[in-house]
TrEMBL record:
Family to which this protein belongs: Belongs to the TLS1 family.
Keyword Nucleus: yes
Gene Ontology BP terms: mRNA splicing, via spliceosome
Transmembrane segments: none
Organism name: Hydatigena taeniaeformis
Protein name from the UniProt record: DUF4604 domain-containing protein
Positions of the UniProt region annotated as Disordered: 1-40
Localization per Swiss-Prot or TrEMBL: Nucleus
């Protein structure tokens, strides 16, 4: 049985070619500070870390609207110009979804629910249905009605 060492992550390393003509020799750049961390003050170290964090930051792309106009457009303006609210979730207004109903809306809802229950109660107590239930129960119990007792017409 043999064990392999785990693979190491490949770290991207960049090498800078120093031109003595183009750089100032007296002031170290951020790459010099990262490669040679000795003799750093706290402020220089913090500045170096911040510059490297800014280098790693992912920048957003350019929107089609700003390319069309030819200048940068603020995101708030783009959202305001969205008539179908596609960028903010469609035609749903989330502010209205979580608001408590007003007194009138609540009364309308209660009235509708009462009307619905009253109509279902009336439908459940339909006369034809009651007759059908009675005849079926009588059949199951074994009681048979004679022709004289049974109604001739169903109303």
């Amino acid at each position: 049985m043999s064990f392999r060492a785990p693979k190491r992550r490949h770290v991207k390393s960049t090498r800078f070619i120093k031109d003595s003509d183009s750089e100032d020799e007296g002031e170290p750049g951020p790459t010099d500070l990262k490669n040679n961390p000795s003799n750093l003050s706290v402020e220089e170290a913090v500045e170096c870390i911040r510059t490297w964090q800014n280098f790693r930051k992912r920048h957003a792309g350019v929107s089609a609207e700003s390319l069309f106009v030819g200048r940068k457009i603020e995101p708030e303006v783009l959202i305001e110009d969205d008539p179908f609210k596609m960028k903010t979730g469609g035609l749903v207004e989330m502010r209205g979804a979580f608001l408590k109903p007003t007194k009138e809306e609540f009364e309308d809802e209660v009235r509708l629910s009462r009307t619905f229950t009253a109509e279902t109660n009336k439908r459940d107590e339909d006369a034809d249905m009651l007759k059908y239930i009675e005849t079926e129960l009588a059949k199951r119990k074994g009681i048979t009605k004679t022709e004289a007792e049974a109604p001739k017409y169903v109303v």
